[in-house]
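Q: My labmate handed me this sequence with no annotations at all. I'd like to see what the chain might look like in three dimensions before we decide whether it's worth expressing. Could you predict it?
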Amino acid sequence: MTATAITSSETVIDTGTDELLCEIRDRVAVITLNRPQARNSLSDNLTPALRRMIKQCGEDPNVGALLITGAGDAFCAGGDVKGMGGKPGSSNAPELTLEQKIARLQERQRTLTGALVNVRKPTIAALPGPAGGAGLSLAVACDLRIAAESAFVTTAYVKI
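A: Here is what I predict for the chain of 160 residues:
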């Protein structure tokens, strides 16, 4: 984990992607989903980085709690629907079947929410706005949820 001290009580953590920010403030890991242009939807870059940061911060003895929030006016719109049709790995990879895509998404979501549930420190979801689908799962997996008046939660399949 690469860290840069800002002040005596604030440290920025390198998450490996601009889509996720992490800093330690007074023993609280503030983890920010940073895709406001996409309502902080979970992309193929963001999801593994978030899983890694949850695990690393959960194991860090200098961290007493984890707070997850979203940049801009949304918490998380769920999975990145625009990116769901992409192929895994290289462009030479075979196209996935619908069943394989669903299984891959289920595994990613299970391991992400599982990482949150397994943290032995308090976890807080700070919702500046909507949480939908997988974003709702993230919020529910936290021990505590705090929401702005403009926030709401929804399942991804309400209009199906």
